Amino acid sequence: MATLTDAKGVVALLAQLNRLAEAFTVQDGFSDETKRAQFVAAAEKLSSAARYVDENVFHTVTRLTLTSVIRCACSLNIFAVVPAAEGAAISAGAIASAVDADPVVTVRLMRALVACNFFVEVGEETYSHNALSRAFLVPETLGMFKEIYDMVGAGAYALPAFLAKTQWRNPEDYDHSAFHLGAHTNLGFWEYLEADPAKLQAFNAGQRSQATVKDFDSSYPYDTELNGKPVTGAEEVVLVDVGGGRGHALERIRRRFPGLQGRLVLQDQQSVIDDALAGGLNPAEIEPQVASFFKPNPVRGARAYLFRRVLHDWSDPVCKAILSNTVVSMGPESRVLIAEYEVPVLGASAKLALQDINMMGIGGTERTGKQWNDLLESAGLKLVKTWRTAGSDFVIIEGRKK
Asked: Which residue range or ranges hold the O-methyltransferase dimerisation domain (predicted)?
């Protein structure tokens, strides 16, 4: 008889889940995010513990197959073709006709999706939406999936071959990465996006997804922190979002902190700023500015310079240069806010550990608290406080000039 991966662990994990379930109600969900995160982690460990050892290996390797099936469904627009109305259903034949695909291929794709909890099989070759499949009706979520699968995923898939070629050295060269190998290109990641408007649009949409932005501003009190001294009037720049994409971060901050005083400035490359304006950015509320963080920041003496999920894209030497270009523009009361994940030195989550491997594929890295401190020190900054988000490893690191 086959052996469970961890028979004793099953009992302990069931007990842990029962305890954590006491914090859950149908009306309000979990009482706090920490308990919810613990419940999810325990549930995932339980499924692994209850499988047979070889079954776990097969389950793991077929996750790649699942993402491939989802990407096929995205390409065929299947998520949009299945009727969105609650309880509505559609046959595989009707889906195949709508997306111009072979009916046999459609059935095989839908069978795999249903088996992995996407869609509901309401009858023979007949399907309706569930909560998981409905998530792909949101353009930003769809863009986020395409972005990771098509672009970041290219680097992750090529990583074994790339690291073998480089004698397993930690990749720090932006112009020579696993992404170049996987995407069959001589262009760096960002230049690759710039060269293809469709890919750039998918990337920018993905950056606006709820999964991408929901944590970033929850731990820092922008109004109480930045409305204190030195407020000199409405014309002062309160916050510069450096490499801020289409302005989604500043839009959320403005909504959550309507009392925040001063000007908000969005900085990015010309094509990104153009895309932001085309996407509805209001320049009367958020000032768009074409700028490169590889040059000294053109806004001098702002109350704060925000880097939200920017520095994890780059190696330490590049990040030192980026931060140094900010330091030269900071006033005596200015601060740098780095909104990123902090990798725990013990017990890192699978989500964060795997995201670090994604970043390795393009020459970036997720960092521990010590690594963040060392990086700030190298650029002439001192870490004065780390603002933490409940139930998450997402932090906002506040740095000041030494």
From this structure: 64-138
